[in-house]
Amino acid sequence: MATNFGFSISKPRVIDVDTNNLKKSNEILAALPELQSCIGCGSCTASCTAGNLTSYNFRKVHTLVRRGEYAGAYEEMNKCMLCGKCRLLCPRGINTRRVVMLIKKCLGDF
Amino acid sequence: MRRSNWEDYQKSIADDHYYYGRSCIRQNFFPGSEKAFLEILAKELGRDIYDDPLHSSCTGIGYHSDIVPLDTIMAVVARQFALMDEAGYENFVTSCITSFGIYTEILSTWEEFPETEERAAKTLYEATGRKLVKPKNMAHTSDVIFHFRKQIAEKMCRPLINVTTGEPLRVVEHIGCHYAKIFPKKGIGGSEFPYVLAGMIESWGGEVVDYPERRHCCGFGFRNYLVQANRGYSVANSQKKLDSMAPYRPDFIVCNCPGCSMFLDKWQYTIAEMEGTTYGEGGQGIPVLTYEEMAGLVLGYDPWQLGMQMHQVDVEPLLNKMGVQYDPTTKYLGKNGKYIGKPAAAAVNNCNDVGLYEIKV
Amino acid sequence: MSKRVVVVGGGISGMQTALSLKSLGFEPLILEQSRQLGGKVADWHLLFPSFTPAEEVTVPLIRAVRQNGILVRLGCKVVSIESRRVILCSGERIDCDAVVLCSGSTLFDATIKEEYGYGIYDNVYTSADIEKMMNNECVATASGAAPERIAILHCVGSRDEKVCQRHCSKVCCITGVKQAIELKKLFPKAEIFNFYMDIRMFGPGYEELYRQAQIDYNIHFVRGRISEASPLMDGRVQIKAEDTLTGRPLRMSVDMLVLMIGMRANDDNAFLSSSSGAELAPNGFFKSRNSFVDNVLSTKDGIFLAGTVSSPKTIGQSLNEATTVAHRVAEYLNYGN
Predict the structure, then answer these.
(1) What CA–CA distances, in Å, run from B108 to B78, B113, B116, B340, C166?
(2) Is C228 within 8 Å of B5 when comparing Cβ atoms?
(3) N or C: which end of chain A has fewer CB within 10 A?
(4) Residue B242's domain spans which residues?
């Protein structure tokens, strides 16, 4: 029945915390509470081996995951080379490699 | 809602002797509204208002679409003011929110940067020989109706009440962005809790519905809807509002901006046809009224004389709730009694399926 | 006869100033416009970062003021100040040898930030409201329920040119962290989101408390300022912000929205400044002679400043200034003039 008007209605890109299912996010935070202490300094992404060559942004991906935005997170985390440089730099002492592995483990289905 | 703070935002609205500035698009989409305004002012309220055939578009749509440069629009606006002065008026009222935004913005620019006023006056004189005289009072026509809301209430013959249930009608008000989002102090109630339409609704017996996306823009956006490829996010804004207001089951929407009333009305048709979603009762749309139409209905005017047959979303469900007597056979007859054609039946105007509208041409 | 020093304001700064002056041999007189001593701290519940009850600060000070026989006049509004004379709104003139302004600051009126609907929508509160609710042990939503999701918004009426408050109010960041923890303790199942522009944890133990809020209490911190609050059908509030660290707009409904209101300059500062000649800073607070060695001196001899009358401060900083100012008054009265 859909009439073609020559354009389609844009879908909202808002992060809707009400409709997002935070179950996986809560699981990840329960397993690694220190992830909450990220202050968004960007040291991880600045030094990231993968992030310098691809669109991979570790900080952004784990922040989105914490808000319940899981789509694509698993694929993004696959770009990580697990070199560990980010963990050396993190001023909050977050075990960043564990974050990568946790997100992959929890969100493999997404 | 406890709108305690609207009285902090008062502006002076002239009480009589208005020079009328029309809108470019309203006469197509809501053709009875401006006529109703003139009639209400002159006949119901006994006010002097001058509808000048010489005045032009303010060119606001062109300005906001990057076609008309600032100096040009200032000269056009200077001409409107010159015409007002020549006609012997000093209170400018405009029927359009875009124009209202343009006029207030330009008056303010002239105040802040007097050299721009000099330039506009010079251009005007060189081009037309006219002299720029600024208005003493500048208001939107919804301000004027707000100003007279109590006098209208005294003459009211059909309050905004559901005649079957006796309950107040639930009304969503939508204010055009350029009414108060440019200069909050130039709008009654400011930009967050505008009271200009809410005041009318409350004075005439209705109930204002507040809903989460009340303050969101309708998505008109000038260059956005003008380009077909951009319309997707223009309509998405109206959709966001409709999604948000629908659970409150409003009886109708009232707007004070030409673009908003057009979009909230016509996009309901588009959304229904594209995605199959409707927002009103019984799978129909939510009627969208202009404040003049609302005032006209309250004062007992005939809905077809008010031009309500030109709406995309059928208004009959609302007319029935208000107990308005109307003749379906005259819906699609123009002013001269000639058949004006009717839209094909669609989800938001399925009243046409009823044989009542089949008139002999 | 010992010299008389008028202390304007009977909050913690005023009381400490008076006590220090007394111990240095002067005769302080506290003029307080309300009917009681203690100022704003008296309305607070627990104090950051140690969760110390506010009364552990106010009660000993009030007791000491009484025990030391310090003259206190309540319900006295000062309308004019000169360096050796104070005039009350009753018209009464009080002669003195110096004046210390400890008249504090004013909490920002959250109704001015109309977009948050404070005073219009249910379930929108200020940080001061939460303190009162905690004191009365009645923290709950408007319908009396336990909140399941709470948003705390930092910088309401601070760092905001739109409301003519460009300064940082200093204490709201840590108050937001403190209240988030207190609310989490009260409602362990609730999700709490703090929305901030910057988190400024300048004091001892503050950064530690912030980390504790994040790690031990699972408080979510979203970098982005709430742009608008709207009512939902069920009385909750919908908020919109940008999650700036992901670059996406964010929306959620909350059972309570708590606004961290800032400190602004008292309206009275304008006429106290014009009568005394002590200058104001552009933000309306009294201007210190300089930020370093003379920070408790106004720009006018004989008029001194202590506490938040000159800028937003913590309790500890205000009390330090109160002690310092007494010594500077002593220097001025003993050797100066």
Answers:
(1) 13, 8, 11, 44, 25
(2) no
(3) N
(4) 155-330
B interface with A, Cβ–Cβ < 8 A, is 228-233, 235-236, 239-240, 270-271, 273-276
Q: How confident is the model at residue B354 (pLDDT cuts 50, 70, 90)?
A: low
Determine, yes or no, domain membership for A2.
Answer: no
- Among chain C residues, the shortest Cα distance to A27 is held by C218
Q: For tokens 């109708």, name the residue.
A: B252
**pTM of the complete model:** 0.94
**CB-based contact C230 B193, cutoff 8 Å:** no
Contact C238 B214 (CB under 8 A): no
How far is the C-alpha of A102 from the C-alpha of B204, rounded, in Å?
Answer: 60
From B24-33, B151-160, B162-171, the region with the lowest mean pLDDT: B24-33
Answer yes or no: is A62 within a domain: yes
Q: Do residue B234 and residue B159 come from a single domain? A: yes
**Parent domain of A78:** 23-107
Residue B104: half-sphere exposure toward Cβ, Cα within 13 Å: 21
Q: Tell me the chain C residues in contact with residue A92 when contact means C-beta distances shorter than 8 Å.
A: 211
Nearest to C238 among B1, B212, B248 (CB): B212
Residues of chain A positioned with their CB less than 8 A from the CB of B271? 9
The predicted complex's ipTM stands at: 0.94
At position B135, the amino acid (one-letter code) is P
- Of C47, C16, C87, give the one whose Cα is nearest residue C306: C16
Q: Please tell me the distance from the alpha carbon of residue A32 to that of residue B12, in angstroms, as a whole number.
A: 61
Whether residues B136 and B225 share a domain: the answer is no
Domain count, chain A: 1
Assess whether pLDDT exceeds 90 at residue B228.
Answer: no
Under the banding of pLDDT at 50, 70 and 90, the label for residue A3 is confident
Residues 225-264 of C with CB under 8 A from B: 228, 230-233, 238
Per the CB < 8 Å rule, is A9 touching B232? yes
Contact assessment for residue C325 and residue C17, using Cβ atoms and an 8 Å cutoff: yes
